[in-house]
DNA sequence: TATTGTTATACTCTATAACTATA
DNA sequence: TATAGTTATAGAGTATAACAATA
Protein backbone atom coordinates (compact mmCIF):
# COMPACT_ATOMS: atom_id res chain seq x y z
CA UNK A 1 0.00 0.00 0.00
CA UNK A 2 0.93 3.64 -0.34
CA UNK A 3 1.38 3.96 3.43
CA UNK A 4 4.94 2.88 2.95
CA UNK A 5 5.75 5.81 0.70
CA UNK A 6 4.18 8.17 3.22
CA UNK A 7 6.23 6.71 6.05
CA UNK A 8 9.43 6.94 4.04
CA UNK A 9 8.70 10.63 3.39
CA UNK A 10 8.22 11.25 7.11
CA UNK A 11 11.49 9.50 7.81
CA UNK A 12 13.31 11.29 5.04
CA UNK A 13 12.09 14.65 6.35
CA UNK A 14 13.48 13.76 9.78
CA UNK A 15 10.03 13.87 11.40
CA UNK A 16 10.04 10.16 12.32
CA UNK A 17 12.72 10.76 14.98
CA UNK A 18 11.33 14.05 16.30
CA UNK A 19 9.73 13.39 19.68
CA UNK A 20 7.11 16.12 19.31
CA UNK A 21 5.88 14.85 15.95
CA UNK A 22 5.90 11.19 16.90
CA UNK A 23 4.20 11.65 20.26
CA UNK A 24 1.56 13.89 18.67
CA UNK A 25 0.61 11.32 16.10
CA UNK A 26 0.79 8.45 18.58
CA UNK A 27 -1.54 10.38 20.89
CA UNK A 28 -3.99 11.02 18.05
CA UNK A 29 -4.09 7.36 17.05
CA UNK A 30 -4.37 6.07 20.62
CA UNK A 31 -7.08 8.56 21.55
CA UNK A 32 -9.11 7.56 18.51
CA UNK A 33 -9.29 4.07 19.95
CA UNK A 34 -9.87 5.27 23.51
CA UNK A 35 -12.73 7.47 22.31
CA UNK A 36 -14.23 4.55 20.46
CA UNK A 37 -14.08 2.29 23.51
CA UNK A 38 -15.56 4.92 25.83
CA UNK A 39 -18.30 5.75 23.33
CA UNK A 40 -19.67 2.30 24.11
CA UNK A 41 -20.23 3.50 27.67
CA UNK A 42 -21.68 6.87 26.68
CA UNK A 43 -18.50 8.60 27.86
CA UNK A 44 -15.93 10.99 26.56
CA UNK A 45 -12.39 10.75 27.95
CA UNK A 46 -13.22 13.68 30.20
CA UNK A 47 -16.28 11.96 31.62
CA UNK A 48 -14.22 8.88 32.28
CA UNK A 49 -11.36 10.68 34.01
CA UNK A 50 -13.71 12.75 36.17
CA UNK A 51 -15.65 9.65 37.16
CA UNK A 52 -12.42 7.82 37.96
CA UNK A 53 -11.36 10.67 40.25
CA UNK A 54 -14.82 10.71 41.87
CA UNK A 55 -14.33 7.02 42.64
CA UNK A 56 -11.22 7.76 44.70
CA UNK A 57 -11.29 7.04 48.42
CA UNK A 58 -10.61 10.71 49.07
CA UNK A 59 -13.49 12.34 47.18
CA UNK A 60 -12.25 15.53 45.47
CA UNK A 61 -13.87 18.93 45.11
CA UNK A 62 -14.62 20.42 41.69
CA UNK A 63 -11.66 22.72 42.07
CA UNK A 64 -9.38 19.77 42.77
CA UNK A 65 -10.67 17.78 39.80
CA UNK A 66 -10.17 20.79 37.54
CA UNK A 67 -6.61 21.16 38.81
CA UNK A 68 -5.75 17.48 38.48
CA UNK A 69 -7.14 17.30 34.97
CA UNK A 70 -5.76 20.71 33.87
CA UNK A 71 -9.33 21.53 32.94
CA UNK A 72 -10.89 24.97 33.28
CA UNK A 73 -13.41 24.92 36.17
CA UNK A 74 -16.07 26.28 33.84
CA UNK A 75 -15.70 23.28 31.55
CA UNK A 76 -16.11 20.87 34.42
CA UNK A 77 -19.60 22.17 35.16
CA UNK A 78 -21.20 20.64 32.08
CA UNK A 79 -19.27 17.38 32.43
CA UNK A 80 -20.49 17.00 36.01
CA UNK A 81 -24.02 18.00 35.03
CA UNK A 82 -24.02 15.17 32.52
CA UNK A 83 -22.53 12.62 34.92
CA UNK A 84 -24.99 13.71 37.59
CA UNK A 85 -27.85 13.49 35.08
CA UNK A 86 -26.96 9.84 34.59
CA UNK A 87 -26.75 9.47 38.39
CA UNK A 88 -23.13 8.34 38.19
CA UNK A 89 -21.89 11.03 40.58
CA UNK A 90 -23.40 13.27 43.26
CA UNK A 91 -22.47 16.81 44.29
CA UNK A 92 -22.35 17.05 48.08
CA UNK A 93 -21.74 20.21 50.08
CA UNK A 94 -18.46 20.18 51.97
CA UNK A 95 -18.89 20.16 55.73
CA UNK A 96 -15.99 22.58 56.12
CA UNK A 97 -16.60 25.09 53.34
CA UNK A 98 -20.07 25.65 52.00
CA UNK A 99 -18.75 27.12 48.74
CA UNK A 100 -17.25 23.85 47.61
CA UNK A 101 -18.95 20.75 46.26
CA UNK A 102 -17.47 17.36 46.97
CA UNK A 103 -17.87 14.93 44.07
CA UNK A 104 -18.82 11.40 45.06
CA UNK A 105 -19.39 8.51 42.68
CA UNK A 106 -22.68 6.69 43.19
CA UNK A 107 -22.90 2.90 43.30
CA UNK A 108 -23.78 2.73 39.63
CA UNK A 109 -20.98 5.22 39.01
CA UNK A 110 -18.50 2.81 40.60
CA UNK A 111 -19.93 -0.01 38.54
CA UNK A 112 -19.80 1.83 35.20
CA UNK A 113 -16.31 3.01 35.99
CA UNK A 114 -15.18 -0.56 36.66
CA UNK A 115 -16.69 -1.75 33.39
CA UNK A 116 -15.12 1.06 31.38
CA UNK A 117 -11.84 0.58 33.20
CA UNK A 118 -11.73 -3.09 32.21
CA UNK A 119 -12.44 -2.24 28.58
CA UNK A 120 -9.64 0.33 28.62
CA UNK A 121 -7.29 -2.18 30.22
CA UNK A 122 -8.04 -4.55 27.40
CA UNK A 123 -7.28 -1.79 24.89
CA UNK A 124 -4.02 -1.04 26.72
CA UNK A 125 -3.00 -4.67 26.51
CA UNK A 126 -3.81 -4.73 22.83
CA UNK A 127 -1.94 -1.51 22.10
CA UNK A 128 1.15 -2.77 23.93
CA UNK A 129 0.86 -6.44 22.94
CA UNK A 130 4.17 -6.39 21.06
CA UNK A 131 6.07 -5.22 24.14
CA UNK A 132 7.35 -7.36 27.00
CA UNK A 133 6.50 -6.50 30.60
CA UNK A 134 9.80 -4.71 31.18
CA UNK A 135 9.40 -2.71 28.00
CA UNK A 136 5.85 -1.75 28.91
CA UNK A 137 6.99 -0.42 32.24
CA UNK A 138 9.77 1.48 30.55
CA UNK A 139 7.34 3.04 28.07
CA UNK A 140 4.80 4.04 30.72
CA UNK A 141 7.61 5.28 32.96
CA UNK A 142 9.09 7.40 30.15
CA UNK A 143 5.66 8.82 29.29
CA UNK A 144 4.97 9.64 32.94
CA UNK A 145 8.32 11.40 33.07
CA UNK A 146 7.54 13.43 29.93
CA UNK A 147 4.11 14.16 31.43
CA UNK A 148 5.86 15.42 34.55
CA UNK A 149 3.99 12.93 36.67
CA UNK A 150 6.47 11.38 39.07
CA UNK A 151 4.88 8.67 41.16
CA UNK A 152 6.88 6.71 43.68
CA UNK A 153 7.21 3.39 41.94
CA UNK A 154 7.68 0.44 44.22
CA UNK A 155 7.91 -2.58 41.95
CA UNK A 156 8.60 -6.04 43.26
CA UNK B 1 4.91 20.19 47.07
CA UNK B 2 1.23 19.82 46.35
CA UNK B 3 2.20 18.21 43.03
CA UNK B 4 2.83 15.06 44.94
CA UNK B 5 -0.72 14.92 46.24
CA UNK B 6 -2.01 15.50 42.72
CA UNK B 7 0.15 12.70 41.34
CA UNK B 8 -0.96 10.33 44.07
CA UNK B 9 -4.58 11.09 43.21
CA UNK B 10 -3.95 10.31 39.54
CA UNK B 11 -2.29 7.07 40.54
CA UNK B 12 -5.03 6.18 43.00
CA UNK B 13 -7.67 6.80 40.33
CA UNK B 14 -5.83 4.41 38.02
CA UNK B 15 -5.16 7.12 35.45
CA UNK B 16 -1.38 6.96 35.84
CA UNK B 17 -1.28 3.54 34.15
CA UNK B 18 -3.87 4.30 31.47
CA UNK B 19 -2.03 4.72 28.16
CA UNK B 20 -4.52 7.21 26.74
CA UNK B 21 -4.34 9.51 29.75
CA UNK B 22 -0.57 9.34 30.11
CA UNK B 23 0.21 9.83 26.43
CA UNK B 24 -2.23 12.76 26.26
CA UNK B 25 -0.56 14.60 29.07
CA UNK B 26 2.93 13.72 27.85
CA UNK B 27 2.01 15.09 24.43
CA UNK B 28 0.68 18.31 25.96
CA UNK B 29 3.82 18.88 28.01
CA UNK B 30 6.20 18.02 25.17
CA UNK B 31 4.33 20.18 22.66
CA UNK B 32 4.45 23.13 25.04
CA UNK B 33 8.22 22.95 24.85
CA UNK B 34 8.28 22.29 21.10
CA UNK B 35 6.01 25.31 20.53
CA UNK B 36 8.28 27.43 22.66
CA UNK B 37 11.40 26.39 20.74
CA UNK B 38 9.77 26.91 17.34
CA UNK B 39 8.38 30.29 18.40
CA UNK B 40 11.97 31.47 18.42
CA UNK B 41 12.03 30.79 14.68
CA UNK B 42 8.63 32.34 14.00
CA UNK B 43 7.17 28.89 13.41
CA UNK B 44 4.31 26.79 14.60
CA UNK B 45 4.72 23.02 14.58
CA UNK B 46 2.74 22.94 11.34
CA UNK B 47 5.05 25.44 9.66
CA UNK B 48 8.02 23.40 10.75
CA UNK B 49 6.67 20.06 9.53
CA UNK B 50 5.57 21.49 6.19
CA UNK B 51 8.95 23.12 5.71
CA UNK B 52 10.69 19.87 6.62
CA UNK B 53 8.67 18.02 3.98
CA UNK B 54 9.39 20.76 1.43
CA UNK B 55 13.10 20.19 2.11
CA UNK B 56 12.83 16.55 1.03
CA UNK B 57 14.69 15.42 -2.06
CA UNK B 58 11.39 14.43 -3.62
CA UNK B 59 9.47 17.69 -3.41
CA UNK B 60 5.82 16.97 -2.54
CA UNK B 61 2.60 18.50 -3.86
CA UNK B 62 0.17 20.26 -1.53
CA UNK B 63 -2.12 17.26 -1.66
CA UNK B 64 0.73 14.99 -0.60
CA UNK B 65 1.76 17.24 2.28
CA UNK B 66 -1.84 17.39 3.47
CA UNK B 67 -2.05 13.61 3.36
CA UNK B 68 1.27 13.03 5.12
CA UNK B 69 0.40 15.49 7.86
CA UNK B 70 -3.26 14.43 8.18
CA UNK B 71 -4.08 18.06 7.57
CA UNK B 72 -7.10 19.29 5.66
CA UNK B 73 -5.94 20.76 2.31
CA UNK B 74 -7.78 23.98 3.12
CA UNK B 75 -5.70 24.48 6.25
CA UNK B 76 -2.49 24.01 4.35
CA UNK B 77 -3.22 27.03 2.15
CA UNK B 78 -2.63 29.60 4.86
CA UNK B 79 0.41 27.78 6.24
CA UNK B 80 1.99 27.78 2.79
CA UNK B 81 1.00 31.40 2.22
CA UNK B 82 2.87 32.33 5.36
CA UNK B 83 5.93 30.24 4.54
CA UNK B 84 5.94 31.65 1.01
CA UNK B 85 5.54 35.17 2.42
CA UNK B 86 8.78 34.62 4.32
CA UNK B 87 10.32 33.21 1.13
CA UNK B 88 11.07 29.90 2.82
CA UNK B 89 9.20 27.83 0.21
CA UNK B 90 8.04 28.31 -3.38
CA UNK B 91 4.96 26.96 -5.15
CA UNK B 92 5.92 25.63 -8.56
CA UNK B 93 3.53 24.29 -11.18
CA UNK B 94 3.92 20.60 -11.83
CA UNK B 95 5.18 19.81 -15.31
CA UNK B 96 2.78 16.86 -15.55
CA UNK B 97 -0.44 18.27 -14.08
CA UNK B 98 -1.12 21.97 -14.14
CA UNK B 99 -3.64 21.72 -11.32
CA UNK B 100 -1.02 20.75 -8.75
CA UNK B 101 1.60 22.88 -7.06
CA UNK B 102 4.94 21.36 -6.12
CA UNK B 103 6.32 22.77 -2.88
CA UNK B 104 10.05 23.47 -2.91
CA UNK B 105 12.07 24.90 -0.04
CA UNK B 106 14.21 27.91 -0.94
CA UNK B 107 17.84 28.22 0.11
CA UNK B 108 16.87 30.26 3.18
CA UNK B 109 14.12 27.72 3.79
CA UNK B 110 16.70 24.95 3.95
CA UNK B 111 18.82 27.08 6.26
CA UNK B 112 16.01 27.98 8.67
CA UNK B 113 14.89 24.36 8.70
CA UNK B 114 18.40 23.23 9.63
CA UNK B 115 18.58 25.77 12.44
CA UNK B 116 15.17 24.84 13.82
CA UNK B 117 15.97 21.17 13.41
CA UNK B 118 19.11 21.51 15.52
CA UNK B 119 17.20 23.35 18.24
CA UNK B 120 14.58 20.59 18.26
CA UNK B 121 17.29 17.94 18.40
CA UNK B 122 18.67 19.67 21.46
CA UNK B 123 15.20 19.66 23.02
CA UNK B 124 14.85 15.96 22.20
CA UNK B 125 18.14 15.20 23.91
CA UNK B 126 17.07 17.18 26.94
CA UNK B 127 13.66 15.52 27.13
CA UNK B 128 15.21 12.06 26.91
CA UNK B 129 18.36 12.79 28.91
CA UNK B 130 17.46 10.28 31.63
CA UNK B 131 17.22 7.44 29.10
CA UNK B 132 20.07 5.36 27.70
CA UNK B 133 20.48 4.95 23.95
CA UNK B 134 18.74 1.56 23.92
CA UNK B 135 15.87 2.92 25.94
CA UNK B 136 15.50 5.94 23.68
CA UNK B 137 15.25 3.71 20.65
CA UNK B 138 12.69 1.57 22.42
CA UNK B 139 10.61 4.63 23.33
CA UNK B 140 10.71 6.12 19.82
CA UNK B 141 10.04 2.70 18.34
CA UNK B 142 7.05 2.13 20.60
CA UNK B 143 5.66 5.59 19.80
CA UNK B 144 6.13 5.01 16.06
CA UNK B 145 4.27 1.75 16.46
CA UNK B 146 1.40 3.43 18.32
CA UNK B 147 1.45 6.16 15.64
CA UNK B 148 1.12 3.41 13.03
CA UNK B 149 4.30 4.58 11.34
CA UNK B 150 6.38 1.55 10.48
CA UNK B 151 9.58 2.75 8.88
CA UNK B 152 12.42 0.37 9.51
CA UNK B 153 10.50 -2.79 8.70
CA UNK B 154 10.37 -3.81 5.05
CA UNK B 155 8.40 -7.02 5.00
CA UNK B 156 7.40 -8.82 1.84
C1' DT C 1 -10.60 41.05 49.86
C1' DA C 2 -10.25 36.34 47.93
C1' DT C 3 -12.26 31.90 46.42
C1' DT C 4 -15.87 28.25 44.61
C1' DG C 5 -18.86 27.28 41.37
C1' DT C 6 -21.56 29.10 37.54
C1' DT C 7 -23.02 31.51 33.21
C1' DA C 8 -22.27 33.89 29.06
C1' DT C 9 -19.10 35.00 25.64
C1' DA C 10 -14.98 35.14 22.75
C1' DC C 11 -11.37 32.89 20.62
C1' DT C 12 -8.82 29.09 18.24
C1' DC C 13 -8.52 25.08 15.86
C1' DT C 14 -10.49 22.02 12.70
C1' DA C 15 -13.94 20.23 9.41
C1' DT C 16 -17.39 21.08 5.61
C1' DA C 17 -19.29 23.06 1.40
C1' DA C 18 -18.90 25.43 -2.59
C1' DC C 19 -16.09 27.44 -6.24
C1' DT C 20 -12.18 27.61 -10.30
C1' DA C 21 -9.21 25.59 -13.18
C1' DT C 22 -7.63 21.87 -14.93
C1' DA C 23 -7.77 16.71 -16.09
C1' DT D 1 -17.12 13.23 -14.35
C1' DA D 2 -13.32 13.71 -11.02
C1' DT D 3 -9.36 16.11 -8.79
C1' DA D 4 -5.99 20.14 -6.90
C1' DG D 5 -6.14 24.09 -4.79
C1' DT D 6 -8.77 27.92 -2.79
C1' DT D 7 -12.30 30.57 -0.15
C1' DA D 8 -15.88 31.21 3.12
C1' DT D 9 -18.29 29.35 6.78
C1' DA D 10 -19.80 26.36 10.53
C1' DG D 11 -18.72 23.59 14.32
C1' DA D 12 -16.13 21.72 18.43
C1' DG D 13 -13.07 22.56 22.01
C1' DT D 14 -11.08 25.74 24.93
C1' DA D 15 -10.17 30.10 27.40
C1' DT D 16 -11.78 34.60 29.46
C1' DA D 17 -14.81 37.74 32.08
C1' DA D 18 -18.27 38.67 35.11
C1' DC D 19 -21.45 37.20 38.71
C1' DA D 20 -23.55 35.19 43.36
C1' DA D 21 -22.60 32.90 47.46
C1' DT D 22 -19.40 32.14 50.92
C1' DA D 23 -14.96 32.59 53.33
Show the largest interface. Answer: A-B, 63 and 63 residues
Element order, helices and strands of chain A?
Answer: HHHHHEEHH
Low-confidence stretches of chain A: none
Number of domain modules of chain A: 2
Q: Given the structure, what is the number of helices of chain A?
A: 7
Q: What characteristic shape of chain A results from the CA principal axes?
A: elongated
Oligomerization: homodimer
Going by CATH, the homologous superfamily of the largest domain in chain A would be Winged helix-like DNA-binding domain superfamily/Winged helix DNA-binding domain
Q: Architecture of the largest domain in chain A, CATH level 2?
A: Orthogonal Bundle
Average of per-residue pLDDT values of chain A:
93
Biggest sheet descriptor of chain A = 2 strands, antiparallel
At the fold tier of CATH, the topology name of the largest domain in chain A is: Arc Repressor Mutant, subunit A
Helix content of chain A: 55-70%
Radius of gyration of chain A: 19 Å
What is the topological layout?
The structure is a homodimer of 156-residue chains.
Chain A: H1 3-12, H2 19-39, H3 45-54, H4 62-68, H5 73-85, E1 89-93, E2 101-105, H6 107-127, H7 133-146
Antiparallel strand pairs in A: 1-2
Helix pairs in contact in A: 2-6, 3-5
Chain A binds a DNA duplex (23 and 23 nucleotides) through residues 61-63, 71-77, 97-101.
Describe this structure in words.
The structure is a homodimer of 156-residue chains. Chain A has 156 residues and is mostly helical. Chain A has two domains: 1-34, no CATH class; 40-146, Orthogonal Bundle (Arc Repressor Mutant, subunit A). Helices cover 62% and strands 6% of the residues of chain A. Chain A is built from seven helices and two strands; from the N terminus they run H-H-H-H-H-E-E-H-H. Chain A has helices at residues 3-12, 19-39, 45-54, 62-68, 73-85, 107-127, 133-146; strands spanning 89-93, 101-105. In chain A, strands 1-2 form a two-stranded antiparallel ribbon. In chain A, a hairpin with a 7-residue loop joins strand 1 (89-93) and strand 2. In chain A, helix 2 (19-39) packs across helix 6 and helix 3 packs across helix 5 (73-85). Chain A is elongated. The N and C termini of chain A lie far apart (45 Å). The mean pLDDT of chain A is 93. At the A-B interface, helix 1, helix 2, helix 3, helix 4 and helix 6 of A face helix 1, helix 2, helix 3, helix 4 and helix 6 of B. The structure holds a DNA duplex (23 and 23 nucleotides).
Amino acid sequence: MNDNHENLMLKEAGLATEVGFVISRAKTQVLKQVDHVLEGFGFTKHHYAVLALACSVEAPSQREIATYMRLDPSRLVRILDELEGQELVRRERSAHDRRTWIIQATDSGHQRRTEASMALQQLNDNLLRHLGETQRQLLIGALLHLAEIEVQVEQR
